Amino acid sequence: MLEQMNDVSLSRRGFIKAGAAAAVLVAIEWPAEGGTESKVIAGWIRIAPDNTTTIFSNTSELGQGTSTALAQLVAEELDVAWKDVRLEMAPLDDAHINPFFGEYATSGAAGVQYQADMFRLAGARARAMLVSAAAQRWNVPADACTTDEGFVIHAPSKRKIAYGKLADATAAMAVPDKPALKSREFWRFIGKPMPRLDIPDKTNGTAVFGIDVKIAGMKYATIMQCPNFGGSLKSVDPAPAMAVAGVEHVVPMKSAVAVVANSYWTARKGLYALTPEWNLAGASRDNSKDYRARLNRSVAGNGIAYAPKGTTTEALAAVHDAAMAKATRTLEAVYEAPFVSHATMEPMNATARPYPGGMELWLPTQVQSANRVSVAKLLGVSPDKVIVHTTLSGGAFGRRAELDVPLQAAEIAQKIGGPIKLIWSREEDMQHGWYRPAAAIKLAVGVDEDGNPIAWRFETACASIAEWSQYGAGRLPAGAVDTRALMGFFGRTAPAYALAAPTFAWTRADAGVPVTIWRSVGLSQNVFAFESFIDELAAQVGRDPIAYRRQMLAGNARALRVFDAVVEKAGWNEPAPSGHARGFAMGFWNGSLIANVVELSVSSVHEVKLHRIACVADCGLSINPDSVAAQMQGGIVFGLTTAFLSEITIEDGRVQQSNFDGFPLAALAQVPDIDVTVLPSDEKSAGAGEVGVAAIAPALANAIFAATGKRVRRMPFKQDGFTLI
Amino acid sequence: MVFNIEVNDHTVAVDMPGDMPLLWAIRESVGLTGTKFGCGKGLCGACTVHVDGRPVRSCSFALSHVGKSKITTIEGLGTQGEKLRAAWIAEQVPQCGYCQSGMIMAAAALLAENSKPSDEDIANVMTNLCRCGTYVRIRRAIHRAAED
């Protein structure tokens, strides 16, 4: 009775059949990015005879709620009832790419930011076509018709017809170019806290994540990779695994060995029976202690200078040096961040089924296009022979933007000639991640006689995401700066504070440990440093940290609105309750702003109790303000785990942590109420997934300073003896 | 070896080794995938089920120990679960949702013992981990379910 419940291959065939018989795709013209290319026709909306309206998302649902926001945008213009709206992942094809990436991909909080207008337009076009179809049927002018909740209405003749009865007639229709969009006063979905469409299934066990995929004849695989980064498999005797009842294959791979069996547990028993020999020539033998020292030595002023677009390093240096010459004091400090794991709750997994000439994959992934291309390359087939189905992801945070796991699944499936689901153990996940780079960040400033900063220098040292991850794939030119290492200091993630005469520099320092994007990318380290440093600076020059910041925000109305709102919300100008102290920080991500005030107390043995976190965010026009608030709450918890608790350390080229005992996550008991205000805004919608992480670690450090006079410059704070209770 | 285990009021024959954790028997042999694998060491609680009404981390509970106990999973939570699900939806708790089956199972066990838990009671019992950071809403949802 239960065996086939998640048989997605069956349900997919069922879908196609049902789609042909019962529902009609409304053809929507989708303009290719760039404008002059030939246009493609794609289905974004499917309307069934019962008016059930399926909206196709091209943004993986990782928990961030983007798929619901995209559905809101379409539903608004299409004018359907929310109860009739369903979500489905769009197929992986050229018609469904996110134009920001030029790929089918989900990262950088870009799902809504770069697609909102297009999804609205898709809804408006479909509506115009449905209205035309009704007008033709009734032989009335289209502009005499209106729509409401999935029906076209012709008031003069009191006629009304469901979209579901018109969808057929749209199939042969030309797609209108630019139908008018609804004006704001009529919005019913955009900007409203619509209930997320993915949530009900996540409360009853029916939501299908990658790890839940089940296809006919599927076996279970698990894997052990060379414990040293960069090592490879020398040899393995398969006999001990093959002796375990239920084990069917031992699959040696370049730097790993996999076992395939009739259950995950059996595969795992077989795997642990093996004693592979590893070839460590060229593998990392580094350790965190030495690497930390190297990072700290690397911010001594000798980094590669960087100039944002529109200026040169020479021009920046000249302005900086001239300003610095007038400084009456200079201050500097070095902040540190360790490697951290994404630690998604759903361990890494991928399901692969070979078919003659190609491979079909079911993936919890952020990078479908890149998965397809990389698997095709592995198999030596053209990309169109690789079919990628997107499942829900049990968290992603950047980890599922890497290509390793789907490639392994494809290789194993190909080698054994049958379908497998590859599941990594938590230990494998913890020890073979692509981590947030460990970093040293040195900030230096010259101040004038009034204590105002007049010349800034930002210098970081860390490994290069561009060198390691599929995003750069080793393409960082010699002498170039990986700008992710300087995020939070310039450009689209620059602070709103006026930063006089800045210079920027970066030194690449590598430990042979893979690194990649990790929720908020450079912000989690760099904003920790920057907002901590402003607090230190204010203390050094004898100024109130809030008044000092406010002066640096002068003239930036949007930032001041957020700033003032959180100051008021947190009651900053009232004394904190006895024994409590407060800390402030702001963060910025590409059009989104966040400000936090943390209230905490610190015991005599440095146990930190969080009492309250007040947060104000402005992410431009929020399609779903409640989802945005959830992203801020989640980002704050993500950030406070990393601020206090968790780090990945290396010894002899191997990760020392293996599970949540060594890499703890904040638990409910440690998280106070997080009171979020999402400010209404008419600015263009900006992303919400990243900015929430940016400003919590420094707010915590600043509050600890206010409580104890001790400045924490290194994450996780437990290294300085501060524990979270 | 065949174990006849009772899951959500159905008896299911599971032909797997006795040292297999109950989690994998539920997911792969019984075919109920609402119970999740998170850590395999009883640290995260994503695999929480009820064994005779008590919350158990099924990744660390051997199939051979089930015996005649009644197993309840998220799919079989029934009326008790309806209240919690309604509260979870009203508070829009889940983000990625992966930990939420375990959270709801832990919350159901809590409410069965303590119909009006305080924040502190919730903090003491709800030790499951959520990487998305939904704790604030979980707390609110448990209070909401307790009030209904």
Layout of secondary structure:
The complex is a heterodimer of chains A (725) and B (148).
Chain A lengths: L7 H15 L1 E7 L9 E8 L5 E5 L8 H13 L6 E5 L20 H4 L2 H23 L6 E4 L2 E4 L4 E4 L4 H4 L48 E7 L6 E4 L3 H4 L4 E6 L3 E6 L2 H10 L3 E3 L8 H10 L6 E3 L6 H12 L4 E9 L11 E7 L2 E6 L4 H12 L6 E5 L13 H13 L3 E4 L2 H6 L7 E9 L5 E10 L2 H4 L33 E7 L14 H18 L4 H8 L4 H13 L11 E9 L2 E11 L4 E12 L6 H20 L5 E2 L2 E2 L17 E6 L12 H4 L2 H12 L14 E2 L1
Helix pairs in contact in A: 2-4, 10-11, 14-19
Chain B lengths: L1 E6 L2 E6 L6 H9 L17 E4 L2 E4 L12 E3 L5 H13 L9 H14 L5 H7 L9 H13 L1
Parallel strand pairs in B: 1-5
Antiparallel strand pairs in B: 1-2, 3-4, 3-5
Helix pairs in contact in B: 2-3, 2-5
Structure description:
The complex is a heterodimer of chains A (725) and B (148). Chain A has 725 residues and is α+β, with helices and mostly antiparallel strands. The longest helix of chain A has 23 residues, at 116-138. In chain A, α10 (368-379) links the parallel β16 and β17 (386-390). Chain A is globular, with a radius of gyration of 27 Å. In chain A, the strands form seven sheets. Chain A has a seven-stranded mixed β-sheet with strand order 10-11-8-18-15-16-17, with helices on both faces. Chain A has a five-stranded mixed β-sheet with strand order 13-21-20-19-14. Chain A is 28% helix and 23% strand. Chain A folds into three domains: 8-199, 2-Layer Sandwich (Aldehyde Oxidoreductase, domain 4); 211-281 and 348-423, Aldehyde Oxidoreductase, domain 4 (2-Layer Sandwich); 298-339 and 436-724, Aldehyde oxidase/xanthine dehydrogenase, molybdopterin binding domain (Aldehyde Oxidoreductase, domain 4). Chain A is built from 19 helices and 28 strands. In chain A, α14 runs parallel beside α19. Chain B is α+β, with helices and mostly antiparallel strands. Chain B folds into two domains: 2-75, Ubiquitin-like (UB roll) (Roll); 77-147, [2Fe-2S]-binding domain (DNA polymerase, domain 1, Orthogonal Bundle), CATH 1.10.150. Helices cover 38% and strands 16% of the residues of chain B. In chain B, strands 2-1-5-3-4 form a five-stranded mixed β-sheet, with helices on both faces. In chain B, α2 crosses α3 (100-113) and α2 (78-90) packs across α5 (135-147). The radius of gyration of chain B is 15 Å and the shape is globular. Chain B starts with a strand and ends with a helix. The chains are: A alpha+beta (725), B alpha+beta (148). The interface between A and B is large, with 71 and 60 residues.
